[in-house]
Amino acid sequence: MEELPDFDIGGGEKLIEMDSYDDEDLLGWLFKDDLQNIELVELNIAPENPGLAPQLQPQAPSQIPLAPKPVEVERPTVSGLQKSQKRFKTVTPEELKDLQDSRQAKSTKQNTKWGVKVFQEWCMEALDQVFDFATTETEELNNVLAKFYAEATPKFSEKRGKEMSTAQSKEYHKNSMKNIRAAINRHIHDLDRDIDIVRDKEFRKANETLDGKLKKNLEKGLSRPTKHKQIITMNDLEKINSYLYSSDGPIILRFRVWYNIAMHFVTRGIEFHQQLQINSFEFHFDENNREYACLSHEMKQKNWQGGLDSGETINDKRMYSCEGDRCPVASLKLLILKTDPDATSLFNHINKDALSSKTPNILQLWYTNISVKSYQFTRFMADVSKNSSCSMMYTAHCLRATAIQAMSDAGFEIRHIMYMSGHRNEASVRSYSRDCSTLQKKSMSDTLSTLSTGRAPPQTGMPMPMAVQNNPASDSVISVLAARDTPNVNTMNAALSSNNFMSSGFISNSAFHNCTFQINNPQ
Question: Which keywords label this protein (predicted)?
Answer without folding.
Answer: DNA recombination
